[in-house]
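Late entry, S-adenosylmethionine complex.
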Amino acid sequence: MFKELKEYAVENHVPIIRNESGKFLCDEVKKNNPKRILEIGTAIGYSALLMLSSCNAFITTIEKDEIRAKIAENYFRKYEVNERINLICSDAQIALEKLSRNNEKFDFVFLDGPKGQYYKYLPFIKEMLLSNGTLFADNVYMGGLVLSTAPIPHKQRSMVNNMRKFLDLAKRDSDFDVNVFNIEDGIAIIKKK
Ligand SMILES: C[S@@+](CC[C@H](N)C(=O)[O-])C[C@H]1O[C@@H](n2cnc3c(N)ncnc32)[C@H](O)[C@@H]1O
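Prediction complete; structure with ligand written out below:
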């Protein structure tokens, strides 16, 4: 599905969700049948299109890169789903603060933005996620570094520590049920009770 987006992503080095993780995302969306989805990290719109094709939800999606956001917008129009999408071109932290100030609520969140910032986004997501809602967070293994007991190379250390912090915060929170799946780069499914 959406072969041209996958080809564009490969040719232009745009990171998009991997195949098996994408299937898992569609399965989770189908299973939960959400009404309102929040996505952090639109890129060119591939995962948003996958989710839209798996349910009847409306998606709010956040992307800070203006060029990618423009490309996503064009694809949303091409696939005639633009009326089911609110694309916010902004830094995610700023967008999340605004959405939560406006008391927005979601029943499914796909977290796929900057990996080192997941832990900062968690309180906003928690507040906006309805009871029984699902947070689907991709790349929580970060190429295996998150689980590694070996010293982490200096360049990746703070990002890896921040991802560990994210998982730790979610697991310690009694309002959440956390399951981490060994699929590709690691997927956390965090259910709000
Ligand atoms: C892994 S890609 C998203 C892929 C997309 N979800 C998909 O599977 O088709 C992560 C995206 O997050 C965006 N991003 C990085 N930092 C951001 C930030 N601070 N705020 C919003 N978006 C950001 C990047 O530009 C990139 O397009």
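The mean pLDDT is 97. Will revisit in the morning.
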